[in-house]
Every structure is written in structure tokens, then in C-alpha cells.
Amino acid sequence: MYLSGNHKRGKWLRVDSARILKRLFFCERALIIAQAGWLPSIASFEAKTTLPRLLWEDSLIADQLRERIFELKFPSRILEIGDDAPLIDVFEAALDAPGPEAFLWSLARVFKPALRDIYLAFGDEADELSQGPIRRHIRIAAAEKAAQAAWLDDAAEAMFAEAPQRREEAERWTEALADWLQATGGVSFDAPAAADPPALPGRQPFRQTDIPARDPQFHLTRYYWPDIVDSSFGYGEGIRMQLRSAVSHVNEVWAVETAGAILHAFADELGWEYIRDTARWTYDEARHTRMGFQRLRDWGFDVSDIPLGSYLYESTGGQDPAMRLGMLHHFEAKNIGKKAQRRDAFETYQDRASQRDMDFDWADETMHAHYGKVWLQALAQKHPDRIPDIPALRMRCEALVLREIEDATDSEKEDIRALAETMITKAESLLHA
């Protein structure tokens, strides 16, 4: 006879726990890649600049799951989907949504709630003594998933308000995914059941767009300030620099889209550390975009006053995805010094908000330039015949941008000049208001 050890705390052994955490890691990974890939195709400014925070949050819990799995499986550092394939197939299918509304709706109604519920259940079942190193992160993830689901629900509803004809398609897509997920047994502590993939209504194999979607509330244009296409219109000082800097920050939306596109493009090839870095990169660029937007709104500009361009993202259309990574790295490295100079100028203007935003932007971009160098070199090592060295890649990027600029029409030049002059006049009038 022995003393009973059949206590709740004895439910999972080390390998049992690792197996569950591994399942959750691959669920998170699939959604991170899908959310990043969809960013260029989402028009809503609010959704385009908020979804990056969600996928970054997802990357944080996924990174903690991964590290805990390796601790529990030591010395093995191999992660394979294995028997979880029926479940991960459902999560990976999220990418193939028929449209942005359907994609966000499926996140809101199927995937984020499923993860929220399993994290809550894990937090209740796990004990501090054995699961302490991951339990805190699991509880944070549960709260984040609840908040994400609520925000995504509202974001999708806002998109339906603009395109009500897309609701039925989104609902059918989401219902089919929910049924498929249920057929596998859902996200649970048990291994998923085999389930034949259904014929998902409206499913479209995902393909990255070369033309980014844009929120029609803005003044839409390819070129967001005259100096891009007209050398006689200088960057300026004083009010002109304040406006130009804020508009530039708003237009880092191209960097949000590009970071998302490259995360999706090279996730499988470059691995988890790459996904983690580019998730942060995407989130940072979204923060920079909202910095400029907030400054312009605080100064009294309407959304329709603000130019939102597309030429930088479009310049890499039809190119090897490595050119998007190269373009993003090129502009990060190119502008670091200028950001520090403008930060100092804003201090002399007593523009604390612009100074602060530029100061944080400078710190982020220093890190981003490092990301770009590391991962471009990794790609070049894998594909020496396809990926040129960084100096050659940057020259190619300059040529692509120049080609896009030279394509500007007279009407486009007149339009952005008129808009800029209107903004400058409005800013000057605010001094006397």
C-alpha cells in the first residue's frame, strides 16, 4: 500500500505539459503569419495600425511557450507539428479568407476566443509549483486574447458598416471554420481528431497584394508631400518641418504593410527568431504611423486633410519579396541620422510631442536597421545567386523608388502641392487662432 498521489497537481507530467504548450505555440504562429500577411490588404486605418499590436502580443506569448517547451524537453530543441496537424490546418486556413472582413470576423469569433478559453483553462488547471515559469504568461495571454476578440469584433462591425454586402460572406466563412475546428475537437488538452478539410465557402488561396488598400477617409495620393516629386519644394523648417515630419510619420503606413508582407513571405524559410523580430518591427512601424496621425489631429487637422501615399510600397510590386525587406532596411538605415537632427530641431521649437516621437522613433529604427542587416545576410547565405549584397540591394532600391517618382503625372504633382500649401496655410492660421 502507498499514499495516494492522485491529486489534481499530478495531472500533467513534464512531457504532457510540453505537448500542450507546443500545440498552442503552433496555433499562435499560424495566426501571427496570417495577421501580418493581411495588413497590406486592409483599408481601415484603425485596423491596419492596431492589428500589428495584436500580432506582436501573440508573438510574445508564443516566444514564452517556445522557451518553456525547450526547458521541459531539454536537451531537445526540435519543434514539430506532428499529431497536431489537424488542428493547425484549421488555424492556417485563416489566411485564405475571401476578404478582410471575413478574416477579421473569423479571428474575432473563432480563433481568438478558442485561444482565450484554452489559456483560461490552462491557468486554472496548472499549479504554481510545476507550471510557475509559464503560468503567469498564460494568464496574461488569456486577458490579451479576450481584449483582442472584443476589439476585432468592433473592427469587423465597422467594416461591415462600410460594406454591408460582405457580411453574409464573412459569416459563412466563419461558421465553416468554427465547424471544422469543432470537428477536430477544438483547442484542448487532448490531441486533435483527424478531420477532413471541408470546402470552405469563398476560400481564396492567399496571395500578397502589390497595391495596398487605403482608407478613403484620407486624401489618397501616391506621393504624400511635394518634395518627393518636386525638388523646388524644400523640406522646410519651422511649421513646414513640423507638418512634413508628421505627414512622414503617418505615411510610415507603407512600412507597416511591408513589415507584415515580409514576415509572411519568409516565416517558413527564416524561422521563429525572424518571425519574432519582424512582429516587433511591424508593431513599431504602426506606432510611428499613429504618432504622426495623433500630432496632426491634435493640431486640428481633419482626417480628410491628411495625405496618405502608396508609392514606396508600390515600388516593390512584382519584385522578389527580398526587395521589400531590402527597401525597408534601406530606409531605416538611410534616415536614422536625419531623425536625430529633427528631434533636436523640435526641441528648439518647444514642440515636445514631435521631439518625443522622433526620439523614440530614432531608437526603434536603430534596432530595425540591425534586424534588416541580420536577416538580409541570412537570406543571402541561403540564396547567394538570388540575393545581392546589401550595398547592391540598396542601389536597386534607390532605382525602384526613382522609377516610381519619375512616373508621377503633372496632375499628381499639382494635387499634392495644393494639399501641402493648404495644410501650411491652415497651420499658420492656427498660430493666430
Describe the structure.
By secondary structure, the protein is mainly alpha-helical. It has helices at 14-38, 45-73, 85-93, 100-125, 128-162, 167-183, 239-250, 253-270, 272-299, 311-314, 321-348, 352-382, 390-406, 410-430, and strands spanning 219-220, 307-308. The radius of gyration is 24 Å and the shape is elongated. The chain folds into two domains: 8-183, Ferritin, CATH 1.20.1260; 219-430, Ferritin (Up-down Bundle), CATH 1.20.1260. The mean pLDDT is 94. Helix 2 (45-73) packs antiparallel against helix 9 (272-299) and helix 9 runs antiparallel to helix 12 (352-382). The longest helix has 35 residues, at 128-162. The protein contains 14 helices and two strands, in the order ααααααβαααβααααα.
